[in-house]
Amino acid sequence: MKIAVLDDYLGLSQQVADWRPLAGRAEIRVIDRPLPTVAEAAKTLAEFEIICTLRERTPFPAELIRALPNLRYLCVTGKRFDTVDVAAAASRGIVVSNTPVTGAGSGAVVELTSGLILALVRNIAAEDRLMREGGWQNFAGTTLRGKTLGILGLGALGTGVARIGAAFGMEMIAWSPNLTVERAGTAGVRRVDKAVLFEQSDILSLHLALAPSTAGIVGAADLERMKPSACLVNTARAGLLDENALIAALRERRIAGAGLDVFSTEPLPAEHEIRQLPNTVLTPHLGYFTREMLATYYRDAIENIEAFLDGKPIRLVSGNA
Question: Model pTM?
Answer without folding.
Answer: 0.90
